[in-house]
User: Fold these one by one.
Assistant:
Number 1:
Amino acid sequence: ATKDEAKKHRYREKISEYMTRAEDIKKHIEKEKQDGKYHKQIRIEENATGFSYEKLFQEYLTEIVSEVWVEDPYIRQLYNFLRFCEMLVKGPCKVKTIHLLTSYDEGSGRSQQMSGLEEIQQSLRNYGVTLDVAFSSSIHDREIRFNNGWMIKIGRGLDYFKKPQGRFSIGYCDFDLRPCHETTVDVFHTKHTKKM
């Protein structure tokens, strides 16, 4: 809006400088990814809020993501897994297949676990998404992988949210407002990660 040509010139130079710096940072991160050195760590403090699945995963869910692998021995809070699936269905990615590897719930919870997973499976089918469920008694680590090369390891898996205080308490519906358990989230790019 200024009429001063000298000011305009200075502003243009500054804008150009910032744009160049942003492009350099972008190239540096891309090189780190290519070299397999990219590692980002997020520490979620006890009772912290603002860590919904959208906040954690959205930047890695590019349009080319069509397949997701979730390995978590303790998928017991099926609403959390359902919430994760809802995020995938909403996009911007075009997920067609979700692979879940987990362990059986022990005792009386097994039939509830199975019927819940079958219901999620059927519901995803209505959106053109296949949920492939497999069980392992020896699975230990928790990780989520996208077919664009991103891998996320969460110490507590998808169940890092605390239970809400009641059905009508803030945070019951909006996970950004839900307090979390303390955990660490590690993000890697797996292009050059060797599978043993």
Number 2:
Amino acid sequence: MPEESPDSAYHSNGSSLEEEAAERMEDEEQERLLSYWQSVGRGHQVDVPRDMAEPIQQLTRNNNPQERQAIPFTLIQRKEKLGDLLYEKRQYGKAKWACIKMKEKQYEQSICLGFMKLMRYICEQNSSGLYLGITIPIVTVVHTNESQSEITPLVTVAYYLPEVLQDEPPHPFDSDIIIEEWPSTIVYSRGFRGITNEDSIMREINLLAEILESPELCLQDTFIIAGYTNPAAANRHNEIWFLQRP
């Protein structure tokens, strides 16, 4: 067996040191991201467990705007006033979504915990063992009480499956996540920024109801909050959707 030359030993040790340094940097980055999410979670009274470290890191790495797949829709109408967009009327086609129902004390807790469960599904905890890719928006279906004065606790957080997975969606390991097929729907959409909680959602519902010419054509107790940035973001880009009656 030939002896290893000093040069090859040097390169071998060099590569080993480089790999160790890269692993150490990766571990430090993972800890930093987890610590950040845990800090944000505490603000929403949500515990972010340690097993979220890898999904958080994977999602962060793949969070370039160019790599996010927007949910396809057909624009039917744009309503503007003095150059400002009041709302858009869109049609979304029939599609499969990964959905999870949540019922925490606060809306913010429900969307944070629901989003974390969906993150695990997206980040390899599925029957394909693959990273599924981010689609935007992540949506939350909310309901109001009979008097339309407040949001009820039960919400559904949902992730649109990428086009290539629509025919055969990977099976979630988490039994709380259900794959549902939603019918084609016409929505009236209006954008808003900032946090989403019971108060801000009711404000946006009332605002869009005032703007629409015929709000009675839409469901009166079911609405969708569409989130284009993750719940940890400080200044979120959101939309409120009214659903036209079938």
Number 3:
Amino acid sequence: MKTLKDVISLKFKTSESEGVIFHGEGQQGDYITLELKKAKLVLNLNLGSNQLGSIYGHTSVMTGSLLDDHHWHSIFIERHGRNINLTLDRHMQHFRTNGEFDYLDLDYEITFGGMPFSGKPSSNSRKNFKGCMESINYNGNNITDLAKRKKLEPSNVGNLSFSCVEPHTVPVFFNATSYLEVPGRPSQDLFSVSFLFRTWNPNGLLVFSNFADDLGNVEIDINEGKVSIHINVSQVKKNRIDISS
């Protein structure tokens, strides 16, 4: 199909930071790919380039961050020729594509949740989407409804379930005076800790532990919106290590 206008909308949620949300391409070098990269949303679009290289149509736009938080995010893409409005969670970004062409010429299937292996280097380096999508609408077609009623030709590749499984995580809420204390592991040379957190407060203590035999301590905190790690080792000359990110 060859379109001058496109309207694409959907909602998604995932805990993965990488994945192709949808993809379409054509024989003339046109393509459109919406994907997550490092938990940010990236739209790659090409309305056509010529072989001489004087017209180069590739355009890439990035928006959002931390989109792997397993919360619903909404996307709305509106294209009229080279003018694009990309809206993520009500935040709209307007841009114009490179090149001189106005039509998006897609000869092959449009895929949602991944892209078919084409043998191109770009296809095998991209991960398929892992998570949930709803309200997928492509140029007036309700894709999720058509998929559920098996009205799409060709049909789904792989197993699709029309429900969204919630992750089995149990969050803990801390107020200003509460904390959680767990027993240490004696005679262990390794100290390892991992966790997810969310807060609006710019300062606060996240983790603290004393080492056995008065060898020092480790402290992880938020200081003015940055995560800082402080390691104090009592029996070394350079006895304090500070890391901030």
